[in-house]
Design goal:
By secondary structure, the protein is an alpha+beta fold. It has seven helices and three strands; from the N terminus they run H-H-H-H-E-H-H-E-H-E. About 15% of the residues are buried.
Length: about 130
């Protein structure tokens, strides 16, 4: 059997239906004990109509904790904001009064989750981005 070039192989694949191509991929995976699903899944996430931020969201390692509302226990929320940040009383109050505002920026997932949990425990509404 003659060896086919990459262009010749692509020409052959372009003539196949999607079902035939899918069957070929399955047979290829079985023959060579590999899995082609991982690259296809990554390409599918970043396909047309999907913003690049959505594809990068899975790999995100820095998060922002945004206070979206103080709730009924505003004083408790101000106390928690002061604990989480190095803000003084007036600055923390201004931050809580001016919602939506970021409380913490560019922190790791664990820190963001702990901060969001503390703020929610004080009665605030929080968003982690």
């Amino acid at each position: 059997m003659a060896k086919l070039s990459q262009d010749e192989l692509l020409a052959q694949f372009s003539e196949m239906t999607l079902i035939e191509l899918s069957e070929f991929v399955k047979a290829f995976e079985e023959k060579f004990d590999v899995e082609a699903a991982a690259p296809v899944a990554v390409a599918g996430v970043a396909g047309p109509g999907v913003p690049a931020e959505a594809a990068a969201a899975e790999e995100k390692d820095e998060f922002d904790v945004i206070l979206t509302g103080a709730g009924e226990k505003k004083i408790q929320v101000i106390k928690v904001v002061r604990e989480l940040t190095s803000l003084g009383l007036k600055e923390a109050k201004d931050l809580v009064d001016g919602t939506p505002k970021p409380v913490l920026e560019k922190v790791n997932k664990e820190q963001a989750d702990k901060a969001a949990e503390s703020l929610k425990g004080a009665g605030a509404s929080v968003e982690v981005k």
